[in-house]
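Postdoc handover notes: sequence design on the structure in folder B. Input tokens:
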């Protein structure tokens, strides 16, 4: 199975998120996912299969908390509530979603419940928030 053919084949993983958020979220196509990844996630190296290599990147904050309240706080601290946010999951079978940052903050706990690893790209701010369950959050600027 290729990445393209496997992308988005398990939308049930985010069904609770989509039900809670409604029309405020847009499920991204494979092409849209890859375009947003190209200006965010893909600009980092990887450590293992699901962790970003932050060496050489401007790290703004690290937090050992790993709950919705902390994600809500980070989104408010580093993004504008109306800016576009893209949520990526650790498995391409789960489709990425685009929504405004305020909606990410409101539904932070539900978003984190979907996957043990996720990344939130705040498009206007050029900031990426990495979540690793059990480790917490890393917030940094996306390298050029």
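Designed sequence:
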């Amino acid at each position: 199975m290729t990445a393209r053919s496997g992308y988005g084949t398990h939308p049930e993983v985010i069904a609770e998120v989509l039900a809670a958020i409604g029309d405020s979220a847009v499920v991204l196509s494979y092409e849209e996912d890859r375009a947003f990844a190209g200006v965010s996630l893909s600009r980092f190296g990887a450590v293992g299969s699901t962790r970003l290599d932050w060496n050489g990147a401007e790290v703004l904050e690290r937090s050992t908390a790993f709950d919705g309240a902390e994600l809500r706080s980070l989104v408010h601290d580093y993004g504008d509530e109306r800016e576009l946010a893209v949520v990526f999951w650790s498995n391409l079978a789960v489709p990425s979603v685009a929504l405004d940052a305020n909606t990410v903050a409101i539904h932070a706990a539900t978003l984190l419940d979907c996957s043990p690893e996720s990344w939130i790209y705040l498009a206007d701010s050029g900031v990426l928030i990495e979540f690793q369950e059990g480790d917490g959050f890393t917030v940094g600027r996306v390298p050029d």
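Context for whoever picks this up: DSSP finds six helices and nine strands in the chain. Don't rerun without checking with the PI first.
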